[in-house]
């Protein structure tokens, strides 16, 4: 038996009885789908019932004050969903009170993306368009043993193409319900019910012992914001200080002005209290000015450096200072190069 037929068979015997499954009214299906985004069924159900009771038609919802809609939504979180719900209801009413009847037209409604449009188009109008949500990714990746990451564009394209191939052309509505229900209650993220699974003999993940490894998601590393306050010392003899970076890590071995690193912006009086500043210029008389009020931002793979350059004109010479010409000869990293080019008119060949 092909996959879609087995899914339909499984669904017939195992699906939960939920109110939005007993209707083909696009208003009610749409309401349920928006409420159930990022929300568990048990939590969303009372909200769905409450909305239907308070606003029996899309017209009632459209004409309600926004505050009433938000109040009813209270506790569900992601309030933009409620605002979009209200706006989309007004869109429908402005267009004559009839819900769009195709996947393509449903996408024009505020807050309706590919998943919701596919759900409404298939459940209400039998359009052959697959829903692809987290449940579907999980079921397909395990069943077929696909390790393409589900949070990348090529991965998502691959799964969508597969879902389009597998969907029942005869009964797309029940097929879509079935694969999502199967993912939600049987092939669950943790402890899937493999031992009573109708797909066990064919399931690639089960047979290769990879159930816990699929689906694959690429880890998105969080970009860290760093603030570098470079101290551009200028002595009476027009000398400055450069220091070399360690031989490993970013900009390994390159030169730069001494700098104070912070996780936020600093005022000058905070900067001068820093140990780096004190070791360099403690006890020296100087006049300071800031070269750039807005930071020069440089993105690295996991970091975003916000660079400020503080020009410190000292009244006396500083040990280890070098002339600006000598400084211009040193290999420097991109931020220093930019400062030298813009402030000192120095361009390295
Ligand atoms: S055998 Fe397990 S992993 Fe494979 S489809 Fe069934 S429940 Fe999912």
UniProtKB/TrEMBL annotation:
Function as written in the Swiss-Prot or TrEMBL entry: Adenine glycosylase active on G-A mispairs. MutY also corrects error-prone DNA synthesis past GO lesions which are due to the oxidatively damaged form of guanine: 7,8-dihydro-8-oxoguanine (8-oxo-dGTP).
Taxonomic lineage of the native organism: Bacteria, Pseudomonadati, Bacteroidota, Flavobacteriia, Flavobacteriales
Signal peptide coordinates: none
Reaction(s) catalysed by this chain's protein: Hydrolyzes free adenine bases from 7,8-dihydro-8-oxoguanine:adenine mismatched double-stranded DNA, leaving an apurinic site
Designated name of the protein: Adenine DNA glycosylase
UniProt GO MF annotations: 4 iron, 4 sulfur cluster binding; 8-oxo-7,8-dihydroguanine DNA N-glycosylase activity; adenine/guanine mispair binding; metal ion binding; oxidized purine DNA binding; purine-specific mismatch base pair DNA N-glycosylase activity
Cofactor: [4Fe-4S] cluster
Domain HhH-GPD per the UniProt entry, residue ranges: 35-185
Cofactor info, note text: Binds 1 [4Fe-4S] cluster.
Single Gene Ontology BP annotation: base-excision repair
Pfam families recorded: HHH, HhH-GPD, NUDIX_4
InterPro entries (alphabetical): A/G_AdeGlyc_MutY, DNA_glycosylase, Endouclease-III_FeS-bd_BS, HhH-GPD_domain, HhH_base_excis_C, HhH_motif, MIG/MutY, MutY_C
SUPFAM superfamilies hit by this protein: DNA-glycosylase, Nudix
Keywords in alphabetical order: 4Fe-4S, DNA damage, DNA repair, Glycosidase, Hydrolase, Iron, Iron-sulfur, Metal-binding
EC numbers on record: 3.2.2.31
PANTHER family the UniProt entry points to: ADENINE DNA GLYCOSYLASE (PTHR42944:SF1)
Family note: Belongs to the Nth/MutY family.
Domain of life: Bacteria
Organism annotation: Nonlabens spongiae
Class of this enzyme: hydrolase
